[in-house]
Design a protein that fits this description.
Layout lengths: L9 H4 L17 H15 L3 H14 L4 H13 L3 H14 L4 H13 L3 H14 L4 H13 L3 H14 L4 H6 L3 H14 L4 H12 L4 H14 L4 H13 L5 H15 L19 E7 L6 H12 L5 E7 L6 H9 L2 E4 L5 H10 L4 E5 L18 E5 L12 E5 L14 E5 L18 H5 L3 E4 L8 H13 L4 E5 L7 H13 L7 E4 L5 H9 L3 E3 L8 H8 L4 E4 L8 H8 L6 E2 L2 H12 L2 H16 L6 H21 L4
Parallel strand pairs: 1-2, 1-4, 2-3, 4-5, 5-6, 6-7, 8-9, 8-11, 9-10, 11-12, 12-13
Helix pairs in contact: 2-3, 2-4, 3-4, 4-5, 5-6, 6-7, 7-8, 8-9, 11-12, 12-13, 13-14, 14-15, 16-17, 16-27, 20-21, 20-25
């Protein structure tokens, strides 16, 4: 959940909804405290947190009831994850003005950071009671409920926010209405081009419509306004990965800029001495915020469970605020489980170092709520990135776990790490609950059904134009599109229909699934297609595996970097490399050739599940041994280095 505000000026306090402090509670207009507060805000915007905090403390020393300075000091402490002092200073603000909704909202954000979700929910409800027309508080409560797997309660909150403020863009985005949100936000930005929050929410809406290039522009502008915001910068990285116009050089340059801008220059915290026995069991730490029902967890759960404890002891360092059944399984499978929730980066790093971790693996470190900056403190002698979207960009990482299909010898993808190639990077859990493979739908329907079950964020204009060519090459074919609730909005459907119409395809040939269902029903939908189409430059991973498991071959376009070659490695593992296209022309040709031979397609469908089951994609024991062998190679190289 985003922070409620970035900084508070004296005047901004008066703009907040709900009851305000009484005149006796407000600080007199003293020039020096005001100047210190504004100076602190300038330092904070540039990432000079220590200088910012000093200014806010000095302002409070001169004017102890200076509400804006108290809130800004708490904000600064919260950004560096010093949650306990942040709570104290928000609490101090509430002693000055106990009925100020903004402070309650910001304190709820800190409670979420501490993993105190029930307390945060109570705080947000208190905020709404104080200011019933505070739309943002309702959206924040809805987001919290959604993260607690309470979708009905979340939707009620979003709709109540819209009832209060019909054009409230954050609520529109949460309700999968990005076109309406975009229209509202463009009007807002026409009046106030430097509205940071509007830029970020508009980028979210554009992402939901496959407009990655536009999102890059919005996020670049927002980052220029607040260049100290590391998570905002990571959103820009993600948008660049999605944008088909991003070159490898541009992507690497931005990852390096992220590292220079946000990674602190700090001394390592791991001991310089280690038992350099090259054959002893290794303590391997896995660092992740995704140890719950998240696609990343499904990729590593069986690895952790299958580790040979004579070779590897898996330690899990978890930034998990919404534990579930997957969390419990991972916790039980681990040799050790440590929560990093509520800890500052340096504190978490000291815990990792104190556990004697030999190899620290950052899982998808630049995505979601992951905390890759913990590794900046060098808590382990060997540090590895795994399942991220590109390089870490940080000099403190030694290796990038990959495979020869993702990164062949001639790869031009920039990185700060050394490639450590496995036979295959991906391991998937066998979905035993899946329905059986159905007969080829085309045999019953008389036409080919293509399908893509990917986030619309991956469906950029080039993808849609290419898929329109595929449909033109296969007359009477259909295309099914589904991803959670993303296609539930008729205006979103209209935009996609217009894109295909522009490509010469009758829009009636598109079929949208708008309602999010459980996994079993989702797999039934996948079973209703004949051929899967993989987007680019960010291929599918779990979606490709699920299609193959349901007997559906997938056509992919081989790109020039990791995220654009996930389809390549998945297809190679099941002997379908002939479905990998080198260019857009061959992509159309492969799809049309598959569609043109229904008998061969039906035969492939009938055997594909068994082929997948027997492939490296599902061989958890073999996979665990290969990863352990990679760790052992890394460790032996390190043991051979001079100590000190």
């Amino acid at each position: 959940m985003p922070a409620a505000t970035y900084g508070i000026s004296r005047d901004a306090v008066a703009d907040r909804p709900g009851p305000m402090p009484s005149p006796s509670q407000m600080t007199p207009p003293l020039d020096q405290p005001d100047r210190l507060n504004e100076e602190g805000l300038a330092h904070a915007a540039e990432g000079r947190d220590a200088a910012a905090e000093l200014c806010f403390r000095q302002a409070l020393a001169l004017a102890p009831t200076y509400l804006a300075a108290a809130g800004n000091l708490a904000n600064a402490e919260s950004r560096r994850r010093a949650f306990d002092p942040a709570v104290r200073h928000y609490g101090w603000g509430l002693t000055i003005s106990p009925l100020l909704p903004t402070l309650h909202l910001m304190l709820a954000t800190v409670e979420i950071g501490q993993g105190r979700l029930a307390a945060a929910a109570r705080r947000l409800r208190r905020t709404i009671a104080l200011a019933p027309d505070y739309s943002k508080a309702k959206v924040n409560l809805g987001t919290l409920l959604a993260n607690q797997h309470r979708p009905d309660g979340a939707e009620r909150c979003f709709r109540r926010a819209l009832a209060l403020e019909p054009g409230f863009a954050p609520a529109l985005v949460e309700l999968a209405q990005p076109t309406q949100a975009g229209a509202v936000l463009r009007q807002t930005l026409a009046r106030n081009p430097d509205s940071h929050e509007s830029l970020v929410v508009l980028a979210t809406a554009e992402h939901a419509l496959g407009q990655a290039g536009a999102a890059v522009i919005r996020l670049g502008r927002a980052f220029a306004i607040h260049p100290a915001n590391a998570k905002l910068h990571e959103r820009l990285l993600f948008a660049l990965v999605l944008d088909p116009n991003t070159t490898n050089d541009r992507l690497f340059s931005e990852y390096r800029r992220w590292a220079r801008r946000h990674a602190p220059a700090v001394p390592r915290v791991h001991p310089t001495t280690r038992d350099r026995d090259p054959d002893r069991p290794l303590k391997v730490g896995y660092l992740s915020a995704d140890f719950y029902g998240h696609p990343l967890a499904f990729l590593v759960e069986d690895l952790i469970a299958r580790h040979d404890r004579r070779a590897v002891l898996p330690y899990l360092f978890a930034e998990v605020t919404k534990p579930d059944a997957t969390t419990q399984r991972l916790r039980a499978a681990a040799h050790s489980w440590t929560s990093t929730v509520g800890l500052a980066d340096a504190e978490a790093a000291r815990l990792i170092a104190g556990a004697g971790i030999d190899i620290l693996v950052s899982l998808a470190g630049h995505t979601g709520e992951n905390r890759i900056l913990i590794a900046a403190h060098r808590p382990a002698p060997i540090q590895v990135v795994m399942h991220d979207l590109s390089t870490s960009g940080l000099d403190v990482f030694d290796y990038w776990l990959t495979d020869a299909h993702l990164h062949p010898d001639d790869s031009t993808e920039g990185r700060t790490e050394t490639f450590e190639r496995l036979d295959n990077l991906y391991l998937h859990r066998v979905p035993e609950e899946a329905p059986g493979v159905r007969p080829l739908p085309a045999a019953r329907q008389g036409f080919i059904t293509f399908g893509a079950f990917a986030s619309p964020g991956k469906l950029n204009g080039r993808v849609l134009a290419l898929w329109a060519r595929v449909l033109r090459a296969v007359p009477a074919s259909r295309l099914h599109l589904a991803y959670r609730n993303a296609f539930s909005d008729p205006s979103v459907q209209r935009l996609f229909r217009e894109a295909f119409a522009a490509g010469g395809v009758d829009p009636s040939r598109l079929v949208f699934y708008g309602r999010q269902l459980g996994r079993l029903a989702h797999l039934e939908r996948v079973s209703a297609i004949d051929i899967g189409l993989d987007p680019f430059p960010f291929n599918g991973g779990t979606g490709t595996f699920e299609a193959l498991w349901m007997g559906v071959p997938v056509v992919t376009l081989a790109g020039a970097r990791f995220a654009a070659r996930c389809g390549v490695t998945h297809l190679a593992q099941v002997g379908l490399s002939h479905l990998v296209a080198a260019d857009e022309e061959s992509y159309v040709g492969i799809a049309a050739s598959l569609a043109g031979d229904p008998t061969a397609l039906a035969g492939l469908r009938s055997e594909l599940r068994q082929r997948v089951r027997a492939s490296p994609l599902c061989d958890d024991v073999r996979y665990a041994r290969s990863v352990e062998a990679a760790y052992r190679r890394m460790w032996r190289r390190w043991c051979e280095r001079p100590s000190g």
